[in-house]
Amino acid sequence: MSIHRSLSLVTPMPEAQETHGVESLRMCGIEKSFSGVQALRAVDFVACAGEVHAIVGENGAGKSTLMAIAAGDLEPDAGSVKIGGSAVQTYSAAYVSAMGLALVHQHPALLQDLTVAENFLLALPKAIRPGAGQADGWIRERLRDWAPNVSPSSCVADLPLADQHLVGLAKALATEPKVLILDEPTEHMDGNQVRHLFAGIRALTVKGCSIIYISHRIHEVKSIADRITVLRDGSVRGEFNAKSVSEAEIINLVVGRTLKAAFPAKPSEVSRAGAPLLEIRDLSGPGFNSVTLSTWSGEIIGLAGIEGNGQREFLRGLAGLLPTSGYVTEVLRKDGAPNRMAYIPRDRHREGLMMSLSVGKNAGLMSLARHALYGFISARRETQAISDQVSALSIKTPAIGAPVKNLSGGNQQKVVIARCLMSAPAALLADEPTQGVDAGARFDIYSILRQKAAEGVAVVVASADALELAGLCDRVLVFSRGTVVKELSGDAVTEKNITEAALTSIVHRRSPGADDKAGSWMQALLRSQYAPSLILLAVVLGLGCYASSVSPFYATERNLSNVLTLLTPLIFIALGQMVVLLSSGIDLSVGPVAGLTAVICSFFLIEPAGTESIAVGIGLSLLASLSVGVFNFLLIRKTLVTPVIATLVTFMCIRGASLWLRSIPEGLIDSRICDWLAARIGPIPIAFVVAIVTTGMLEVALRRSRWGLSLRAVGSSEVNARKAGVSIEWTYLGAYTLCTLLSFAGGLMLMAQIGVGDPGAGVNYTLTSITAVVLGGASLLGGRGSFIGALMGAVLIQQVMNVTTFIKLNSAWQFWLIGILIIAAALLYSGLRAGRR
């Protein structure tokens, strides 16, 4: 695809020329820098109602930064923003959303651990948020035009990336914005989905919505945009009428140089003499069936098809990421080096990058052995190799030691590619290798893939862009319903033929049988948030049945009453631990807080305790507990100390305070108070009933209230929660104070049991509470878990401790059995979550 037109034909459009209506967004003199690197330089930008205004530029040109400022995610160093003629006073996502601007991010800004409905409800302003009874139908109506096959009850983590983008778009449109920003909206879409998106965009502009369209796909920009603004190196390089400028001219302005072609030249003929580089026969796996393929030196194989028809699953199966059956030859290397397949994943955030590491550490991860001698890495050789690769791919980074998370999306993609290339692979398997990459870098990547193929590397590329496959590949396999329905080669490899073959196939999958349907409800149950609770309940009942068969004293009212009494403090403390774990934190001070409660009360609730003395004792212990929660919050959020270290410091401080107040156990609690706290209805302690009711209330709040949504959102992704308008600081403060409040309640129950101010009491509850929530299925990374699971985890721990006594096992077995159960739970829950993915 040659480019002949000269840059001199491109004339910047006057500022006020050919606007489509009133200004919906005006940005004046916008400047922004990060760590001394200037990202935007005095940028002026205007979008008008009823038009599509595209922004194009290289990776790192400032497109996403400019739009993040417009959306309130970032505050500019200088400049002003007006939406609908009103100036933005506060740079926050919630404030800007209320003014009528919505941003659909390049990487879906959805909370992965929440359902589709919960993501909607969290982001919607109160004025348009539907009631609990109408939410499901209201959200289905919003999804109908964009993601009709997505259920509001689906967990976002279970959805394909293309559906996540469409859900994000539907969520943004639910706020009825005046300005809609689409950042690389088609990166995960196939041709049908792109056409559907463009039809929807045109319908929105007819209604007067202003669309700002950011994309590296210039042919899409040309087909959908009315005006185009080019950014390069943080500055506006021109604004143009989309009809008066060619694709070639746009590309040359974007990259700052003239590109002679969109794709490197293909070889005139591929020799098939000798053995193929890679030979696959009847390869089958989840989503694909009986795929046969042979590749020879010099050719690039493309995989095409409508999204979800098995081409990506085949590539992942070939890379060893899915279980497969069939025959695959060893991939041969000319230099005799160890065989290796390198896989470029489609989703660089989930599978491609270690976001906490540097650019260099990410790039060099697959080639450590090549730069090592006797197990020791040569820093000089590794640094030189990484620097060469960074230069070859034009990765824009301040230094190879810079955090990879600070790079633009396209530059992050180049780091993934650099890592694969540095491993000197015998086969290169690329799923959307140019996703989020600018035009200049695309050509560089195409050239590298072509060069590797010429060097004898087997190259297989999956792409949703038929034009990309037609320009790059020598042969294309078209998939439909998991099967290769057509193979195109030579002159037949055209965009039209690829698209036509994908749309007109008539191959059918096997219909689901009765067994599949019968098992679906069971699979859904096992993958739910409550599966761990059901599993723990089964274990608890099994242990109880076994203990009853061994000892006649187990199933008695007296034993039941004792077990529930001992269980109650642990339930309250485990519930508190669950609150902070849901927010992605942890609190090691819960046990000492419970012990401190008993110690403080031992000065005031001694016999004979009057009403005033009781009130003072409980009030002071409550105040001390809440103060610990506030202190933990301040230490974690204001000094950036990790939760483990911060709460370990608090743990030590509270232990010291308890020992200072009571060096030995003393201060007998009034027996009347102990009796009141230990009151029962039959064999059931009233405090246990209160703990169960508290668990139920917290669980309902977790699933149904904005507090619960905010808590899980922050734990799932603080960045995306902030974009959804969640008050991050208040959520964390509430989590740590509620945790210590529940620990205080557990401390009162503990005080009633021990009846004395013991400075060592409660310490063991810290590890026990963590064990309970882990057994209950909570993620230590936050965002996932249930209070019912924490309750059942506590029940199981107490059951193990009780049963081992009745079956006359050594007390050491209490710890061994719990350890075994933790390992078993971890393996089981990780398996269930892997099944969901």
Secondary-structure map:
Elements: E1 23-34, E2 37-48, E3 52-57, H1 63-70, E4 78-83, E5 86-87, H2 93-99, E6 101-104, H3 116-123, H4 135-144, H5 161-173, E7 179-183, H6 191-206, E8 210-214, H7 218-224, E9 227-232, E10 235-241, H8 247-255, E11 278-285, E12 288-295, E13 300-304, H9 311-318, E14 325-328, E15 341-344, H10 348-352, H11 359-363, E16 372-373, E17 376-377, H12 379-392, H13 409-422, E18 427-431, H14 439-454, E19 458-462, H15 466-472, E20 475-480, E21 483-489, H16 495-504, H17 514-526, H18 531-550, H19 557-582, H20 590-601, H21 611-639, H22 643-661, E22 666-668, H23 671-677, E23 680-681, E24 684-685, H24 686-704, H25 706-716, H26 718-723, H27 728-754, E25 756-757, H28 765-775, H29 787-806, H30 812-836
Parallel strand pairs: 3-8, 3-9, 6-7, 7-8, 13-19, 13-20, 15-18, 18-19
Antiparallel strand pairs: 1-2, 1-4, 4-5, 9-10, 11-12, 11-14, 16-17, 20-21, 22-25, 23-24
Helix pairs in contact: 12-13, 15-16, 18-29, 19-24, 19-27, 19-28, 19-29, 20-21, 20-22, 20-27, 20-28, 21-22, 21-27, 23-27, 24-25, 25-27, 28-29, 29-30
CA-based gyration radius? 31 Å
Task: Kindly report how far apart the N and C termini lie.
Answer: 40 Å
**Main beta-sheet strand count, sense and barrel state:** 6 strands, mixed
Overall pLDDT metric: 84
| Overall number of strands | 25
Main β-sheet, spatial strand arrangement: 6-7-8-3-9-10
CATH class designation of the largest domain: Mainly Alpha
Shape: globular
Report the total helices.
30
Name the poorly predicted regions.
1-19, 507-519
Briefly note the CATH topology name of the largest domain: ABC transporter involved in vitamin B12 uptake, BtuC
Counting helices, strands and paired strands, the structural category is alpha/beta
Estimated share of beta-strand residues: 15-25%
What number of domains? 3
